[in-house]
Amino acid sequence: MLEDLSLEEQKSVVKVGDVAVGGDELTVMAGPCAVESREQLMKAARQVKKSGGQILRGGAFKPRTSPHSFQGLKEQGLKYLAEAREETGLKIVTELLDSTDIELVNQYTDILQIGSRNMQNYGLLKKLGELDTPVMLKRGYAATIKEWLLAAEYVISHGNPNVILCERGIRTFETATRYTMDLNAIALIKEKTNLPVIVDPSHGTGKRSLVGPLAKAGISVGADGVMMEVHPNPEEALCDGQQSLTLDGYDQLMKELSAVAEISNKKLAV
User: Fold this and answer.
1) Which among 37, 109, 235, 239 has the fewest CB atoms less than 10 Å away?
2) In angstroms, what CA-CA distances link 198 with 30, 86, 108, 185?
3) Structurally, what CATH architecture does the domain formed by 24-263 represent?
4) Is-contact 114 128, C-beta < 8 A?
5) pLDDT by residue (tens digit) across 110-169?
6) For the chain, what are the domain ranges?
7) Are 81 and 94 in contact (CB under 8 A)?
8) What is the pTM of this model?
9) Do 94 and 56 contact (CB within 8 A), yes or no?
């Protein structure tokens, strides 16, 4: 049961500079899974901005199942993200993997993303509570809703109220999609807490063709924002190309999301 949680007392809007996550405007975070090069990131960032996104996503440190897979450009990737922010005005969200990198990543980013694998890294969460930088906490792919919310309480109870939740799909017996997008969680979190929550249909489905339908569904059940993977050339992506939208596909979806947002009493500037 969730009755013993105290998150209903927390703030409903997290400010990221001039972007309000959880307010009247739908927040869109978009960009490549991984920062692969300056050219790749800048192309994506310009389209994210042009089509109405507010926050640029891109991984500089990548947690990969195989140690032989692309692990990210690390600090050079962070520098490219900062350059993209300077040109476009977009805020940045990027993943933090290790507590030893907190100071480095925090120098560059506007939101610290904690991925599925680190959702229950309580030592890391406690340290994030000592910061005032917003934290986006992705749900663990095998975590219950209560476990996810208790992980958020670790950050909040240690002094940082700026927590954004992200539903990114959970592992079930179903194998037709990469994960199972839990729309129940979005509606329940909005009922039981005041924390903003966004939906990540790229990871939640693992299929480019399903990103749009699940993004719309997430907004319809109360999500405050959407995170999407966007790549200039998905077929050449070093990771997650199969779930990344093309630049044109992202632009078209943003136009469609505007109508869904309006029905859900949210605004989307496109």
Assistant:
1) 235
2) 12, 25, 22, 11
3) Alpha-Beta Barrel (3.20)
4) yes
5) 999 999 999 999 999 999 999 999 999 999 999 999 999 999 999 999 999 999 999 999
6) 24-263
7) yes
8) 0.94
9) no
